[in-house]
Specification:
- By secondary structure, the chain is α/β, with parallel strands linked by helices.
- The protein has 5 domains: 21-176 and 255-339, Rossmann fold (3-Layer(aba) Sandwich), CATH 3.40.50; 187-244, no CATH class; 362-589, 3-Layer(aba) Sandwich (Rossmann fold), CATH 3.40.50.980; 676-798, Luciferase, domain 3, CATH 2.30.38; 800-907, ANL, C-terminal domain (GMP Synthetase, Chain A, domain 3).
- Helices cover 33% and strands 20% of the residues.
- An 8-stranded mixed beta sheet has the order 1-2-4-3-5-6-7-8, sandwiched between helices.
- α18 links the parallel β14 and β15 (497-500).
- α2 packs across α3, α3 crosses α9 and α17 (466-474) runs parallel beside α18.
- The longest helix has 18 residues, at 389-406.
- Residues 152-159, 334-354 and 849-854 have low confidence and may be disordered.
Length: 916
């Protein structure tokens, strides 16, 4: 006999924010025990025939939410050009579904969902979508459905009800959980004896705490809608039961069911089911371990971390657009390499292998008998230490063998927080040689930026100097730790390091002496490194390069730097100090703080050049400025050393032509070069001072012609300042600069949405043929090509000013403003709403600004009028400030977004405070 439910199922009241009442329906289906139950669910197209929708999204909420969680996705997916039907269920005991009084285990919930979906008689493509414990439930159903569909062998062959599994989307949930681990994160406190019923059922503590997690806060009406079905203690019994069902321990009743879900994830991977993993990194329950577990179990999955998001990921405004985009690009594709992240354009791993250049460490092995200098480290007093090729090669092999002995495995990630020099060079090449992935983040990112980079990358090991390891311990960075440099036992204990680099090398010596070989070389298409962007134009992003792409990048850089055997390189630009040995060139590290490029003095540069008779030097723009500013301190010997430099390169930000002309006074044999590119593709173009002078004046900065193997196109701007997907190489057309080549990045790390946007290109037939097997990258820069095929950069896409009448790129007007006597540096920004937006120049004067430091000054009328004439613009104002805000790494990229916000407040009469 079936007893009456404790509370029958019901329809939610009308008027809940964002919820269409027409979506709600009640459905009867047997639960896992065969007992008839009534469910509430949202269904956007219950009567749709298979041809009317692309497929069905089965969405399952977690604890303590209900199907309301999926209202945004339901609205967007059902309104897509090719709509999807959304079926979002309220699990039994939850939301507006029936309260039965049954304590439901994970196995029962998977069975409940299976029976409900069978009753709905779904057919066609189905994508399983879940968050929190609903993600575990729907993954269990998806794996079981795959098993029912020809034993899991054919994803597109219909199973029960004519369903074929088209994809899996999960957000902040689990694929597995160790049986011997305590409850995850914040659930530990909730599961203490006597606490669980108090915070989950008797009171709304657990419910309200969960709803408080999103930032910015959910509107009051939305929070009220979530609480609506949980108004009484009996209504909240399911919340308590859900927490109690967390399978902690080997003997927990739901442990076998969770293990079955974990096994099901393996079947999904083996069948090539497309998967999307979306994550809120600030989740207090499903932390980084769970995301790393998903990545390990579904290596083909598309992954995106929403910076700043927390547990309720579907409430983040970025979530729904990402899912809809993924459905369009992935859910209807087969399990081919092109449907896997990292293969959205360009060759497959096998094709890369066929034409792969030598690996980065090949030059070390070739010169293992050479006693000439490979790396030269220069001290502040001008003395130097040289490390020979033979020693560097031997130490690299020893470290590779030692890392393997310590447990470093192919595919694991190793963060390298060591200043440029012999230790970093040997450690980097050793990590690459064993097949691990080097994570390189510039210390200039600061503590917060480094924490985000190291934690977000999911590193397994951290190799660093004591200062970095102390930060790793204090900030709870993941990974086992290895100390670089001379370290005492006390420091080892304090930092939590398990070994020093010297001890790792000694382990490797013993292995090699015993005749144990190094592991097989990693495949050319395997991940080699994650290189972080500077963060100067947004949050720093991890850029993934395969081994083949790293080798091609090094070769391209070598061609531009004009360095190689017999051509030593002084590198004051930390990331590229690592490529010298790969090119067979002696790499000289000058005395400076690599986190602050402007600390390089002319004396330190000259000492580095003299230490190896270097013929090439690679400096950041900020370093160039300070070298010129400190040139008066040079003695005759040091001036003579600099006069021998034949190639000077500066990259990372534009370098003004007058500055390059001054460089020639110090290095008369050098024709300064400023290659253009980014962490995602460097170099893209190359240009010398002579080329710039030959090109003459133009709109923006001339960065030269594409380097061999690179194709550059333009995606034109529309009237709203947006760049489309069509890309061509027509001269004189302003738009986003798009670069293609074989040394372009593989992808962004765990930023699928960002990566997909960066490769969304429809090139002309001519550009497609020119690119061949390479990859595309949208740079985010705006510019144009001239009739001679030269590339001109006019600013960043995000800094384009759109008024009621025109689209204005900033760099050209800024250059003309800076030509006015009295103006040192300028930023062009727009203020006000678009229909009334006005142009404003905010500038640093060449002389000190009178008045209090940090306060703005309106330019004198004569100066303002001169700036207006020079720019050719009817400027609303010309404001003078002591300093314009710039990025950390280059000290030269102006933060125009910040300048615009500040200028708007100033012109509105607010006390805006200090700008820089």
């Amino acid at each position: 006999m079936v007893t009456a439910p404790l509370r029958p199922a019901a329809l939610p009241p009308a008027g809940l924010p964002g919820l269409d009442p027409a979506w709600s329906r009640l459905v009867q289906a047997p639960d896992s025990a065969g007992v008839p139950r009534t469910w509430h669910l949202l269904d956007t197209a219950p009567d749709a025939s298979p041809g009317e929708v692309a497929g069905t999204l089965v969405c399952v909420h977690g604890n303590p939410t209900w199907s309301y969680l999926w209202r945004h996705l339901a609205a967007a997916a059902s309104a897509a050009p090719v709509p999807w039907r959304v079926v979002a269920v309220d699990q039994l005991e939850m939301g507006f579904s029936e309260r039965t009084g049954v304590h439901r285990t994970l196995a029962q919930r998977v069975g409940d969902l299976t029976n409900l979906l069978d009753a709905l008689e779904l057919s066609g493509p189905v994508v399983a979508v879940g968050q929190d414990w609903g993600g575990i439930v729907v993954t269990g159903w998806a794996a079981a459905e795959l098993e029912r569909s020809s034993g899991g062998a054919g994803r597109h062959r219909a199973g029960s009800g004519g369903v074929h599994l088209a994809g899996l989307v999960v957000a902040n949930t689990a694929a597995s959980y160790p049986a011997d681990a305590p409850p995850p994160g914040a659930l530990r406190a909730a599961t203490l004896p006597g606490v669980l019923p108090l915070v989950t059922r008797r009171a709304e503590v657990f419910l309200r705490t969960t709803l408080a997690l999103p930032k910015p806060a959910l509107p009051a009406g939305v929070r009220a809608a979530y609480r609506l079905p949980y108004g009484t203690a009996p209504d909240r019994a399911g919340i308590e039961d859900f927490v109690a069902d967390v399978p902690v321990g080997h003997d927990h009743p739901s442990r076998p069911a969770l293990d079955a879900v974990t096994g099901g994830v393996e079947r999904l991977r083996a069948a090539g089911v497309p998967a999307l993993v979306l994550w809120g990194p600030r989740d207090p329950v499903f932390g980084e371990w769970f995301l790393r577990d998903w990545r390990r179990r579904l290596p083909h999955a598309d992954v995106h971390r929403f910076a700043g998001a927390s547990h309720l990921t579907p409430e983040d405004p970025r979530f729904t657009p990402a899912v809809v985009q993924w459905l369009d690009e992935r859910a209807t594709a087969g399990p081919t390499p092109e449907s896997i992240l990292g293969s959205t354009s360009g060759p497959t791993a096998g094709a890369v292998e066929a034409g792969a250049p030598p690996r980065l460490w090949a030059a070390l092995e070739e010169r293992s008998g050479d006693d000439g200098p490979a790396v030269v480290e220069v001290a502040p007093d001008g003395t130097s230490r040289a490390i020979s090729w033979s020693l560097l090669a031997r130490r690299t092999r020893e470290l590779a063998a030692g890392f393997e002995a310590m447990g470093v495995r192919p595919g694991q990630r190793v963060s390298l927080l060591v200043p440029p020099g012999a230790d970093l060079t040997a450690a980097l090449y050793a990590v690459l040689r064993v097949g691990a992935v080097a994570v390189v983040a510039d210390a200039g990112l600061g503590v917060r930026g480094l924490t985000r980079a190291v934690t977000g990358s999911g590193v397994d090991w951290v190799v660093g100097v004591p200062k970095a390891l102390a930060a790793a311990r204090a900030l709870r960075w993941p990974g086992r730790r290895v100390a670089a440099g001379p370290v005492s036992d006390a420091v080892l204990r304090a930092t939590g390091a398990t070994a020093t680099l010297l001890e790792v090398a000694e382990r490797g010596q013993n292995r090699l002496a015993a005749g144990l070989p190094l592991p097989p070389e990693p495949e050319a298409g395997a991940e080699g490194a994650v290189l972080f962007t500077s963060g100067s134009t947004g949050p720093a992003k991890g850029v993934v390069y395969t081994h083949a792409q790293l080798s091609r990048l090094a070769s391209a850089m070598g061609a531009v730097i004009r360095t190689g055997p017999g051509a030593p390189l002084v590198s004051a630009f930390a990331p590229f100090a690592l490529f010298g040995p790969a090119l067979g060139a002696t790499c000289v590290v000058p005395a400076m703080d690599v986190t602050r490029p402007a600390t390089l003095t002319a004396t330190a540069l000259a000492d580095a050049v003299a230490a190896s008779r270097a013929t090439s030097a690679f400096l950041s723009p900020a370093a160039v400025v300070n070298v010129l500013a400190t040139a008066d301190a040079l003695d005759e010997r040091r001036r003579e050393a600099l006069a021998g430099v034949r190639v000077l390169l500066s990259a990372g930000a534009p370098v003004p032509t007058p500055l390059l002309q001054r460089v020639r006074e110090l290095m008369p044999l050098a024709d300064p070069r400023t290659p253009y590119g980014a962490t995602e593709v460097l170099p893209a173009t190359d240009v010398s001072l002579s080329d710039v002078l030959e090109a003459g004046e133009g709109e923006g900065i001339c960065v030269g012609r594409p380097v061999p193997g690179v194709v550059v196109g333009i995606a034109p701007l529309d009237a709203d300042g947006r760049a489309g997907d069509e890309v061509d190489a027509v001269a004189g057309v302003t738009g986003e600069v798009v670069v293609g080549g074989e040394h372009v990045k593989d992808r962004y790390d765990q930023l699928w949405v960002t990566h997909a946007a960066s490769v969304r290109v429809r090139p002309s037939a001519e550009l497609a043929r020119a690119l061949g097997p390479g990859r595309w990258h949208r740079t985010g820069d705006v510019g144009h090509l001239d009739e001679a095929g030269r590339v001109w950069i006019e600013g960043r896409l995000a800094h384009v000013v759109v008024t009621a009448d025109e689209v204005v790129t900033p760099v050209g007007p800024e250059q003309r403003a800076e030509s006015v006597d009295g103006i040192a540096r300028a930023a062009l920004v727009g203020v006000g709403p678009r229909e009334a937006r006005q142009l404003v120049v905010v500038a640093e004067p060449e002389t000190a600004v009178t008045g209090a430091v940090g306060r703005t000054t309106v330019a004198p009328p004569a100066l303002a009028e001169a700036v207006r004439r020079a720019t050719g613009r009817n400027l609303a104002a010309v404001l003078l400030v002591p300093a314009l805000p710039t990025d950390v790494r280059h000290n030269s990229k102006i933060d125009r977004v910040r300048v615009a916000s500040w200028a708007e407040r100033v012109l509105a009469g607010d006390r805006a405070g200090r700008l820089a």
